[in-house]
Amino acid sequence: MTKMKILLFAAAMIVVSSIGVKPAHAWCDPGEVFCGFVVDTTVRFGHDDVERYKVSSTGPYCTPGGSDDRWRGKAHVYRIAPQNAAVPDPLWISLDWNDDPTTSRDDLILVVLEDCDANKCLGADPHFLEFSTQNGNRLPNNDSNGYWIIVDSRRDTTVAYTLNIYCGDFPFSVELSSFSAVRTQEGVAVNWSTASETDNDRFEVSRRELGSDEWMTVGVVAGNGTSSAQHDYSIVDRSVSNAGYYYQLAGFDANGNSQVFGSVIVESVTEVVPAVNSYELTGNYPNPFNPTTNIQFSVGETAEITLNVYDVQGRIVAELVNGVVEAGAHEIAFDATGLTSGVYFAQMRGTFGSDVMKMVLMK
Predict the structure, then answer these.
(1) What is the pLDDT of residues 172-184, one digit of tens each?
(2) How far is it, in rounded angstroms, from Cα 320 to Cα 281?
(3) Which CATH superfamily is domain 273-363 in?
(4) pTM score of the predicted model
(5) What span, in angstroms and rounded, lies between the C-alpha atoms of 269 and 210?
(6) Which residue in 193, 181, 331, 225 sits closest to 10, CA to CA?
(7) By the 8 A CB rule, do 251 and 259 touch?
(8) So what CATH class is 8-167?
């Protein structure tokens, strides 16, 4: 969820089910994927064929684990081929699945191979891989067979996942300079401003009542396409009660691709803070970010909490809060200078339980 600077991937996204794309189990008979594909499916792992993926036949290994750690092998296998004899630069591949950021052992892995050979590993990560000239690891153009994308596991399990393929430059971007919501005599006024827009078709404003999980759209405003000038936007939500609300802003390009920017809180007219069960991470902006982002969270009652940031290996990379926090909405900055691109997780803990939120660092 983002609020200030957001890059929207608008590469003709195609949502594909497990029927539309064959997630093959044979190394040299992969399912074909292309730039802009989004694959939503579920995989069942039950093999034990691969010791570990290697950079070459003599090593080293490119996947995590001990020397005797084995991956299931022959899981879901996809192939992306160079288009017009050129490999996309950059090429981003993300794997979204439900994991626990506090554990050091990931159950799912994303592996990219050169050809159908487990000993030609080009990269591996539980969630995110980037191949680009800027990153110093652009895929070479000398492989007419394309590159193998593997979704694998190290244990027998059934896992739902989403695989995203992003290629080249991503034109859809919006630079937000402000976003706020305030209660007025007419209702709630939602205001936001942009410093620049690229291929921006429209904004949608949604709201949900504090303590509820249901979002409803309360306004749609046309964007300004491509513009480097500042633009100011506003709507008035007149269908409100005395309750407190979250307001959320999202942007869309002409192809329907969307990205949520972030959310703000409007307190009830009696200024009653959310109930005890409304302890949550409400978003971060911008997201993706580089190198800083602002993490928003709410606390129903004054409580002692911790707020840490983890990498995909479950390691703490930043300790942001450790102490008593007063009831209400809060915001704290996270500076990822010195960290590498990829997926990170913010986790808030307390006597109420915990809440986890995913963030993407793009350098």
Answers:
(1) 667 778 888 999 9
(2) 13
(3) Macroglobulin (MG2) domain (2.60.40.1930)
(4) 0.45
(5) 13
(6) 225
(7) yes
(8) mainly beta
